[in-house]
Structure formats: C-alpha cells, structure tokens
Amino acid sequence: MINLGVVGHRGYARLPDVLRTLLRLAPELDLKLFFEPDLHEVARAGELLTGPEGLGGLATLGGDGTLLRGARFLAGLPVPILGINLGRLGFLTSIGVDEMEEGLRRFARGEYHAEPRMSLEARAHDLDDAMRRKWYALNDVVLHKGGFARVVRLEVFSNGEEVGAYTADGIIVSTPTGSTAYSLSAGGPIVHPDVASIVVTPVSPHSLALRPLVLPPTAEIAIYVEDGPEELLVTVDGQVGTTFATGDTLHIRRAERSVTIVRFPGTTYFARLRRKLGWGSVPHA
Fold first, then answer.
1. Distance between CA atoms of residues 113 and 110, nearest Å
2. Shortest CA distance to 137 belongs to which of 177, 185, 188, 86?
3. Which residues pair with 170 in a beta bridge?
4. What CATH code would you report for 119-256?
5. Class of the CATH domain delimited by 2-112+264-277
6. Which of the residues in the chain have pLDDT under 50?
7. Domain segments of the chain: what residues?
C-alpha cells in the first residue's frame, strides 16, 4: 500500500470531481489517502494529513503554485510529487486533469521517472548577523522593493568575492527550475533542469551594463542592501517571505535537499517548453 498525501487549491471548480476520482480509485490501486485539513473538509473521507513522514507520494491538485507549496511541505524528504494540473499552465506539474486516472494507475505501478530538482536554501540575517528566517525554494528567492517607487542599490557577493553593485527594482536568485518563472519574465536565461546552477537576474536594472548571471551550484551568494526604501521584501517561490531592512544580509546557496517530481515516459522538457510556453514557435502575422 502507498500512503499518498494530497494537497490542493480549493479555488478550482473541478476540485470536487478530482477528489471523487481519487477516492474511487484508491481501493483498486492500493492507495491510502491523507488529505490536508482544507481538502479533508471537502472529501469527508480518508485520513488527515499532518506531516510528510511515512508518505510514499504527494499528489498536488492545482497549478505550479500548489506544487511549490507541496514541495515546501515535504521539507526535503525524497517523496515523489505527482502534480495534477487543474489550471491553465502548470509547467511543473506531471499530468493534466484529463490524464489523471491513467496517471494514477501508472504511478501506483511505479511506471514513472523520479526527476530530482535542485533547490535553494535562503537565510535572512540581521545587522548583528543573527539568523532571523530560513527557507527552502524550488523556484526562486526574490529581494525586491514592494510598492515603493524607489530603486534599490544592492551589493552582491559570490563565495566572498564581490560580483558587483546592482541598482534595480530588485534581484532574483533562481534554480534551473525557476529559470522559466519570474526570472524568465525579467529577461533571464532558460536553464535546463539537469544543468545544476544558480541564476542571478536583476529586476528592471537601471544600467545597460547589468545582465543576468549564471553561477556554479557551489556558489554561496550574499546580498547586502546599500541604499533603498526603509523596508524591502524577501519572497520565496512567490508565496512566503519576510520584510528586509537596510543592514540585513540575504544568504543563498544550494540546498542539500532536492525535490522529486514525477515524470512519465513520453514527456520531455522541451516538449513542455513548446506546448506550455510557446518555445520556438513562429509568430503569425
């Protein structure tokens, strides 16, 4: 029997149908379902999911944001994530909702590839170098100015060596997985997930000399705020974070833990790029 955790976004109209399908297939596929509290209220069946320990898999019902939340919930445990896309894009997810039944059968039979994805560890330190917060990110860590109409001056270091001063609206530090998210929108490169690296992308830089930078996975990045609004924001995977004051330091490095995503035979990274992001398509007149 596989203990399958289930997390999801209640805002999707198809969620009740998806939960009914899960509950119908679970006995046949020898799955024991554990629902997070919000979903347990809707499903009114299965067990309550209280932690990641003992899980043989995690199903995420929603889009990429739900998968990112599921990855943080696992806290580094090597549990494969089966992302079931209920939205429009779902670049990170494993299958669409219409492929769900066959996907669950293949998952239960072990007919999938467990694809490890590099993640980041980020730590916010105060002026006395005491750690205030710590996070793990599958996509990115962003230091930005929030709603203030002022630029930020940042000093960026890699392994203790000064990289340079960035005058911009903020800075994105991303994994290869996150290279197709906010970093891409800010002009960063697409990095294949098999190429372990850390991408540093300025947000709206105020200099033509600043360009995105790809660093090796061994880089330990430190970011200091030289000048800017009194209060900045650190956002992790676009979902969680904290305030950040002048004098604080943001430390980012490759995490020891990785995130495991379920992939099925017949799906490739470049096929997803073409289908979901329009990669390589020729615009029509």
1. 8
2. 177
3. 144, 203
4. 2.60.200.30
5. alpha beta
6. none
7. 2-112+264-277, 119-256
Rounded to the nearest 10 degrees, the angle between the axes of helix 100-109 and helix 15-29 is 30
Q: Residues 6 or more apart from 219 whose CB is under 8 A from it?
A: 158, 159, 198, 253, 254
- Residue pointed to by tokens 């997070």: 36
| pLDDT number for residue 207 | 82
Q: Which two tokens stand for residue 71?
A: 């990855």
Confirm whether 30 is a catalytic residue. no
Same topology, domains 2-112+264-277 and 119-256? Answer is no
Catalytic residue among 17, 64, 169, 194: 64
CA dihedral (161, 195, 239, 44) positive or negative = negative
What's CA 175's distance to the chain center, in Å? 9
